[in-house]
Amino acid sequence: MKGYFDVIVVDAPCSGSGLFRRDEEAIDEWSENNVMLCSQRQQRILADALPALKEGGVLIYSTCSYSQKEDEDIADWLTDEFAMTNIPLNVKEEWNITEVLTASGNRGYRFWPHLVKGEGFFLLPLN
Q1: pLDDT grade, residue 98 (50/70/90)?
Q2: Strand order in the sheet with 5-11
Q3: Is 14 within 8 Å of 65 (Cβ atoms)?
Q4: How far apart are CA 20 and CA 67, in angstroms?
Q5: What's the structural domain count of the chain?
Q6: Do 92 and 51 form a contact (C-beta atoms < 8 A)?
Q7: CA angle, 19 then 123 then 35, to 5°
Q8: Annotated catalytic residue: which of 64, 78, 84, 126?
Q9: pLDDT reported for residue 21
Q10: Which residues, 6 or more positions from 68, have their beta carbon under 8 angstroms from its beta carbon?
Q11: What is the domain extent for residue 40?
């Protein structure tokens, strides 16, 4: 299905730190080793999915993690390894979404559970 999809959404399996408030088991399962394993798994999933994205298509990458290894580092890996371009969003201040910059200048978005309704997560749009 090479170059078939206009949009691909990857809600990647992650270490789950964004679920700590809701799920005590997520706290027990979290470890630095699990973060590293999740980051590697996320890279494999993305590398497998990206060939199906049309040229100029949009990738939405998301995790329920606050880990830099699973979020900002993945953003930089995607732009470095796959020549993807970050899509900055126009986020209104009253939405309480936190824009974060990666080491390479990509913009990602954190949804902190104490600032927005729902659990915490990270969002990254690219094309």
Answers
A1: very high
A2: 5-11, 53-63, 121-126, 107-111, 98-101
A3: yes
A4: 13
A5: 1
A6: no
A7: 50
A8: 64
A9: 67
A10: none
A11: 5-126
- CATH code of the domain covering residue 24: 3.40.50.150
64 is catalytic: yes
The tokens for 9 are 């959404």
**What span, in angstroms and rounded, lies between the C-alpha atoms of 31 and 47?**
24
Inter-CA distances, 83 with 15, 57, 76, 87, 91, Å: 26, 13, 10, 13, 24
Q: What is the CA radius of gyration of the chain?
A: 15
pLDDT attached to residue 23: 67
- Mode of pairing for the β-strands spanning 121-126 and 53-63: antiparallel
CA gap 64, 17 in Å, rounded: 7
